[in-house]
Amino acid sequence: MSRIRRRQSDVGIQLTPMIDVMTVLLAVFMVTTPMMTTGIDLELPRAGASAMTGNDHAIQISVDANGNYYLSEMKLTRDDVVKRAVAMRGENPNLTIMISGDTHTDYGAVMSMMGRLKDAGFQKVGLRTQPE
């Protein structure tokens, strides 16, 4: 009588290679994330040591020295910036907005953007500064 030996195959998921890959990906993202800056180069106004520096999950709106408006690095009109921010709020109702205004920009341009965003229903709108 012949015996047929069946080999039991291991059908479980091997977690060790998956954990290794995830650890490497985590390390790569932890190293590269601080290097990724969004927005344009601005000379931010100086404030006290407890200045707001921004939120990584906030929409970054910038106003340069000439009064041009930017959403991240994209130059838009003031109304287009507000429209896009409202569209983004549809995906995340608790969205925070940080406005970065150049030191040499017109105060009215920054406050105009802030007012339009408040009129559009945004409650969390902040001004980004550079600590002294």
Short recap of the structure:
The protein has 132 residues and is α/β, with parallel strands linked by helices. The chain is built from three helices and seven strands.
Indicate the topology.
Elements: H1 15-32, E1 46-47, E2 59-63, E3 69-71, E4 74-76, H2 78-91, E5 97-101, H3 107-119, E6 125-128, E7 130-131
Parallel strand pairs: 1-7, 2-5, 5-6
Antiparallel strand pairs: 2-3, 3-4
Q: Would you give an account of this structure?
A:
By secondary structure, the protein is an alpha/beta fold. It has a domain at 46-131: Nucleotidyltransferase, domain 5 (2-Layer Sandwich). Helices cover 34% and strands 18% of the residues. It has 3 helices and 7 strands. It has helices at residues 15-32, 78-91, 107-119, and strands at residues 46-47, 59-63, 69-71, 74-76, 97-101, 125-128, 130-131. It has a 5-stranded mixed sheet with strand order 4-3-2-5-6. A two-stranded parallel ribbon has the order 1-7. α3 (107-119) links the parallel β5 and β6. The chain starts with 14 loop residues before the first helix and ends with a strand.
